[in-house]
Structure formats: C-alpha cells, structure tokens
Amino acid sequence: MVDDGLLNAIADGTFGLMKRPPDGGKGADGVVEKADGYFNPAQDILEDA
Asked: Which residues does the UniProt record annotate as the domain D-Lysine 5,6-aminomutase alpha subunit (predicted)?
C-alpha cells in the first residue's frame, strides 16, 4: 500500500472482499441522507481525534 497508494489498495481488495476501481464506484450516488435524530457516537469520537 505504501508503494501503490490507498486507491490502488482499495481497487485490489486489500481491505475486504469488495473491490472498487479508483475511477469507479458509487460516488455521491451511494451517499444516503441521515434521518432526523440520527446519532452515531463513533462519529463524534473520530471527529474529535
């Protein structure tokens, strides 16, 4: 990954079974709006880090 970069590692399936080419995937179409009152405690922890 250090030599090839993050996008190539994702394309090769380094982090799981799903592979995504650097120029493919769902992009903004894969983003889902959060419902009113949605809460994810992990998000707060990660954003404060």
From this structure: 2-44
